[in-house]
Write a structure and sequence with these properties.
Radius of gyration: 27 Å
Order of helices and strands: H
Number of strands: 0
Largest sheet: none
Number of helices: 1
Strand content: under 5%
């Protein structure tokens, strides 16, 4: 007859395995590819200047 200690160890391993599987599934669902969304003061465009100076209009 297996001892109570071996049942506790098996239960701990099963619990750890279940937690690991849940953590992996949760991280995969959060890692979906979302495109960046910019909304600054009602504007949906961002202007990137490659050079600064009077010759670069805004």
């Amino acid at each position: 007859m297996p001892s109570l200690q071996s049942h506790k160890v098996r239960l701990k391993l099963d619990l750890l395995q279940a937690i690991c599987v849940f953590a992996c599934l949760a991280s995969l669902s959060n890692a979906r590819n979302h495109p960046p969304q910019f909304l600054i003061n009602g504007q949906t465009e961002i202007v990137v200047r490659l050079k600064e100076g009077p010759e670069t209009p805004v």
